[in-house]
Amino acid sequence: MKETLHETQIFDAILINLYQILTWITERISKYFNQKEIEKIQLATEEAVVNIIKHGYKRKKGKIEIEFFSKEDLERILEMLGKEETL
Q1: Going by C-beta distance under 8 Å and a sequence separation of 6 or more, which residues neighbour residue 40?
Q2: Are 11 and 17 in contact (CB under 8 A)?
Q3: For the domain 5-84, what is the CATH superfamily, name and number?
Q4: Residue 70 region, left (φ>0) first, then alpha (ψ -120 to 50), else beta?
Q5: Is the CB of residue 20 less than 8 Å from the CB of residue 12?
Q6: Tens digit of pLDDT for each residue in 5-61?
Q7: Which of 65, 73, 77, 81 lies in the 20 to 30 Å Cα band around 15?
Q8: Residue ranges per domain, the chain?
Q9: Is the separation of the CB atoms in 12 and 63 below 8 Å?
Q10: Which residues neighbour 54 within 8 Å (Cβ) at sequence distance 6 or greater?
Q11: CA 79 → CA 4, 59, 65, 86, distances in Å?
Q12: pLDDT at 75 over 70
């Protein structure tokens, strides 16, 4: 039977949470990817998170939802969705 996995985590969209976000992702992908691939995913994640916070939300409060799941064919997909909060 093929492994299936689905996890979602929501973080406040503030730069101080960047390390926590990268740690959460790394813990989930480390058994599926080699070190070089992990570093590429971390870099892409860091860039996406910073862009969401700096350019998407600007000075507004918001959330970043990160979803990690594998399909039956074990394809790994990370989706990052910014969700704006109304003040």
Answers
A1: none
A2: yes
A3: Histidine kinase-like ATPase, C-terminal domain (3.30.565.10)
A4: beta
A5: no
A6: 788 999 999 999 999 999 999 998 888 889 999 999 999 999 999 999 999 998 789
A7: 77
A8: 5-84
A9: yes
A10: none
A11: 16, 23, 8, 22
A12: no
pLDDT of residue 33: 86
Q: pTM for this one?
A: 0.75
- R_g over Cα of the chain: 14
Residue 20, classed as helix, strand or coil, is helix
Residue 8 three-state SS: strand
Contact 21, 11 (CB under 8 A): yes
Q: CA-CA distance, 70 to 87, in Å (whole number)?
A: 35
| Cβ atoms of 81 and 11 closer than 8 Å | no
